[in-house]
Amino acid sequence: MSIQRGAIYFVNLNPVQGREQAGQRPVLVLSIDSINRLPLVVTVVVGTKGDHIPRDYPTNVRVSATESGLPLETVFLCFQVRALDAQRFPDSPAGRLSSAALARVEAAVRYCLGL
Questions:
Q1: 32 CB contacts (<8 Å, ≥6 apart)?
Q2: Tell me, what's the pLDDT at 21?
Q3: Is the pLDDT of residue 33 over 90?
Q4: In this structure, what DSSP letter does residue 68 have?
Q5: Residue 80 burial by CB count (10 A; 0-12/13-18/19+): exposed, middle or buried?
Q6: Structural domain span for residue 38
Q7: pLDDT reading at 4 higher than 80
Q8: Is the four-CA dihedral 61, 49, 43, 70 of positive or negative sign?
Q9: How many domains does the chain have?
């Protein structure tokens, strides 16, 4: 399996604590491919259904189904950056972000992390 930057996978995020996103969720791979090929962890941003987030915030990126290949509009919560073991990922991605949408996510993550 080859996990790639910009790909979107549905993974089970349990177990979680507190306000962490739980259950089966779309995650966007942010870590670079040279890291993703190593037996390390994969850095992701967690997504949720667009209708769960009625307002837009500078910490979130709303992505249409056309931009992602997913069946529904998705909001990536760029303050919910996680490192996941590669064993959580299925064999193939559910979608992939356009380069323009990935650039919006990158900007929001930089905002959230003060970079």
A1: 5
A2: 86
A3: yes
A4: H
A5: buried
A6: 7-113
A7: yes
A8: negative
A9: 1
- Residue 2 is assigned to a structural domain of this protein: no
- Rounded to an integer, what distance in angstroms lies between the CA atom of residue 93 and that of residue 91? 7
> 43, 48, 49: which is closest to 5 by C-alpha?
43
Residue type, position 51, single letter: D
- pLDDT the model gives residue 20: 77
CA angle 65, 11, 109 (to 5 degrees): 65
First to last CA, the chain: 31
> Is residue 1 situated within a structural domain?
no
CATH of the domain at 75: 2.30.30.110
Q: In what order do the strands lie in the sheet with 74-85?
A: 60-63, 74-85, 41-49, 24-29, 7-12, 95-96
Q: How confident is the model at residue 86 (pLDDT cuts 50, 70, 90)?
A: very high
Specify the residue for token string 């209708």.
Answer: 51
Q: How far is CA 6 from CA 24, 43, 104, in A?
A: 19, 11, 12
Q: Is residue 2 within 8 Å of 37, Cβ to Cβ? A: yes
Task: Give residue 28's pLDDT.
Answer: 98
